[in-house]
């Protein structure tokens, strides 16, 4: 789950916490609503069962200010517009396993790749995250299965101001019609597909993709 700027340790779920997590849904629209839906389903089926929230942003919580700040006026950072980083549960596991398998390597500087339908890189120093490619949302960083990765913000302005796309259309384009799927019109996967028999030269348009978007993953 997305923990925002304050939640960086596993915590038992209660009603106030659910409200805080719901408020963070715009920062992770492909993940947070579905995670919360699973919590509610478990609460309905097993009302007495304790549930604990673990945050995918927590592993990156100790980043230096110069890493978390975006090049925007300070009030925006104070309102939570900042670089969070994601895939932290995956990186925490890798860091722990690396320390067990090769303590000397783990004590140094290591770059770890999380590659799937969602993808990112994380720089580790002595097992702790010091930087990562994802930022404010899970759209940032590497090109992914259906997500664009790092993109000139001017492209978004152009899509809205000149191409006439609505906010919802831009969101759909960037989250589910871009990345590997969008630039090569092939399956949204990190399996080798350059070139591949099912990857033709045709590109999907912003409104009519030539292939159905794969279900986005983390």
Question: Which tags fit this structure?
Answer:
three-stranded antiparallel sheet, 34% helix, two-stranded antiparallel ribbon, alpha+beta
How is this structure best described in words?
This protein is of the alpha+beta class and 218 residues long. It folds into three domains: 1-55, no CATH class; 60-136, no CATH class; 143-218, no CATH class. 34% of the residues lie in helices and 11% in strands. The chain contains nine helices and five strands. Strands 3-4-5 form a three-stranded antiparallel beta sheet, with helices on one face. β4 (119-125) and β5 (128-132) form a beta hairpin. The model is unreliable at 200-216 (pLDDT under 50).
Percentage beta strand: 5-15%
Largest sheet: 3 strands, antiparallel
Please count the helical segments. Answer: 9
What number of domains? Answer: 3
- Strand tally: 5
Structural category is alpha+beta
Shape: globular
Q: Topology as H/E string? A: EHHEHHHHEEEHHH
Strand line-up across the major sheet:
3-4-5
CA distance, first residue to last residue = 10 Å
Average pLDDT, all residues:
88
Q: Are there runs of 5+ residues with pLDDT below 50, and where?
A: 200-216
Helix content: 25-40%
